[in-house]
Design a protein that fits this description.
Elements (H helix, E strand, L loop, with lengths): L5 H11 L17 E6 L14 H10 L19 E5 L5 E6 L13 H12 L17 H5 L1 E2 L2 E2 L7 E5 L2 E5 L7 H4 L16 H6 L7 E3 L8 E6 L12 E6 L3 H10 L4 E3 L9 H5 L3 E13 L10 H9 L3 H8 L5 E2 L24 H10 L8 E6 L5 H15 L3 E7 L1 H9 L7 E5 L11 H4 L17 H11 L4 H18 L2 E13 L3 E2 L15 E2 L4
Parallel strand pairs: 1-10, 14-15
Antiparallel strand pairs: 2-3, 3-7, 4-5, 6-7, 8-9, 9-10, 11-17, 12-16, 12-17, 13-17, 18-19
Helix pairs in contact: 9-11, 15-16
């Protein structure tokens, strides 16, 4: 467990302990005016700055509105969120102007101070928030991360300045052309003053500025009910309310959608992916996904420290066969670290290291002196449809490398993530990544930057490369986004050489819903446009 203050540790334990099987969400079936959505248990309490996984992120998206939004098709910034504009003359000092009239669910105004104070809190080393890394390029961040006598050297970043109620400035350490796009991330959400009175209570029942307000506290193993926020400035939700219902097994959730007792489910169990289109017809939805799934290597384990071992494992996996046989062609083999939804994507930067070549793989394994008598542990979270493909990967390693394997798929997602952060992986682990803002940069620096290692970020392979970090800095400083993307490709080339993760497949988003709801749409980020869902009938 990463080092946290006692109240943070308590929150993690509350949300990450062993969960009850299935879902105890029958309470929602008689709730009038509420549509229900499938979700897994969040890793942490529901605080934007400490949420970087899909389950908690889905809930945050309903409760909080971002500064910057994006066009559904082009992914260009649209500024339909709280920000009126984000401008700079030098790409170093940025001025953020807010739209007037936005309020939190408790009626207090959303101001420049709401952002500046929240960002400072998120960046404090003493809080150990998983999204602290997002603020690393702001002047003064290092002081908040430097501990002196058990306390941060400073509590406010000097690069953040409130100009007036609707305006604040952000001074970065270096030019960053992509900065306005990054502000679509949940980490940059505002916090009301009441948060600082009791962060633990807030994490159970957040007060946000989004389309829905928390009507109940989050209950572990069950979820929460939300009500429409009628004063929402981003377009009032069409349904009176919604509910997130916690499941530990996809199959149980899918059965409930079939029975009409759960309204919306994103992500289908393995045995339903082929039949769902015919079963649900126009209530089956699909969209190109921003998600990429890889095998992460624990670089802190001497067994996987040699790049030849990592390359051998990658080359022993037949990605095309995996996509065709296990996923019925619904996923695309991955040969790089980004996905086609972002500019700067290349179809095959990985080249030979992501190609199926057992002969070369065995030579590399022999050169590295790898002990083939010891099984390879394969880690993944339980109940989310990963058993078959991870079993297939294990069988490929056994057949093509002569190394046995053990599946470690007994932990729920909320239990597995802290173990990854604690360097607790004893072998390759499922590492999935979906964008929260549309840039190739998001697929690179937040996953592999040296400063993004836990507890401050998502670099759970604990990869560190001066060459990669330097390439990112150079790309950040480009004069335009197209030029920056070229630079990010150079950073991706460093990853290809070092292979801290082996890209496996690019996903597709599949969703189903009942006849009780309509206007259900998948967003470019793989979630649901909750505010747009219409309720056709009550239970």
């Amino acid at each position: 467990m990463r080092q946290r203050r006692r109240w943070v540790t308590a929150l993690v334990l509350t949300f990450a302990l062993a969960l009850v099987a299935g879902c105890s969400g029958s309470w929602a079936h008689t709730t009038p005016g509420v549509y229900t959505v499938y979700v897994g248990e969040p890793q942490n309490a529901l605080i934007p700055g400490n949420t970087n996984e899909t389950n908690g992120g889905n809930v945050i998206d309903a409760l909080f509105a971002p500064l910057v939004t994006f066009d559904d098709e082009t992914l260009d910034p649209t500024y339909d969120g709280v920000a009126e504009s984000v401008t700079s003359d030098d790409r170093i000092t940025w001025t953020v102007k807010l739209k007037p009239g936005w309020t939190f669910h408790d009626g207090s105004p959303v101001t420049a101070e709401s952002y500046v104070k929240a960002w400072n809190w998120n960046a404090l080393a003493s809080n150990s928030y998983v999204n602290a890394f997002f603020f690393a390029n702001i002047v003064g961040y290092t002081d908040l991360q430097s501990m002196v006598d058990g306390k941060p050297r400073a509590t406010e970043m000097s690069g953040l300045q409130v100009v007036d109620e609707q305006t604040f400035t952000v001074t970065l350490k270096a030019p960053f052309a992509v900065f306005p796009i990054t502000l679509g991330a949940r980490a940059f959400s505002p916090l009301p003053e009441v948060f600082y009175d009791d962060p633990a209570a807030f994490g159970r029942k957040p007060i946000g500025n989004g389309p829905f307000t928390a009507e109940t506290e989050w209950t572990r193993g069950r979820g929460m009910t939300l009500a429409r926020f009628d004063d929402y400035q981003g377009g009032v939700a069409k349904a009176p309310g919604m509910g997130f219902r916690v499941y530990t097994e996809q199959s149980t959730g899918y059965t409930d959608v079939l029975a009409g007792s759960l309204d919306i489910m994103v992500g289908l169990p393995e045995d339903a992916r082929g039949s769902a289109p015919a079963t649900f017809e126009d209530r089956y939805l699909t969209r190109a996904s921003s998600s990429i799934t890889s095998l992460g290597f624990p670089l802190y384990d001497p067994r996987y420290a040699d790049v030849r071992v990592r390359r051998a494992i990658s080359m022993a996996i037949n990605r095309e066969l995996l996509a065709d046989i296990i996923f019925d062609g619904s996923v695309t083999p991955a040969h790089g670290f980004a996905t086609p939804v972002v500019d700067g994507f290349r179809p095959d930067p990985c080249g030979q290291w992501c190609s199926f070549d057992p002969e070369t793989a065995n030579k590399l394994l022999d050169e590295a002196g790898f002990d083939r008598s010891k099984p390879i542990d394969l880690w993944f979270n339980a109940g989310s449809g990963h058993d078959q493909w991870m079993l297939a990967v294990g069988n490929m390693l056994r057949r093509n490398l002569g190394v046995d394997f053990q599946l470690r798929g007994h932990l729920q997602f909320a239990q597995l993530l802290p173990l990854q952060d604690e360097k607790g992986m004893t072998g390759p682990f499922r590492a999935a990544w979906s964008m929260v803002y549309p840039s190739i940069q998001y697929y690179l620096n937040p996953r592999f930057g040296s400063a993004a290692q836990p507890p401050n970020g998502s670099n759970t392979s604990f990869y560190s490369s001066a060459d990669f970090d330097a390439a990112i800095v150079k790309a950040d400083g480009a004069e335009s986004i197209p030029a920056a993307n070229t630079g990010y490709q150079a950073a991706e080339d460093v990853l290809v050489t070092d292979l801290p993760q082996a890209p496996i497949f690019i996903g597709v988003v599949q969703a189903v819903h009942t006849t009780r709801v309509t206007n259900v749409k998948i967003t470019p980020f793989g979630g649901i446009d909750y505010a747009g869902v219409e309720l056709l009938e009550d239970r």
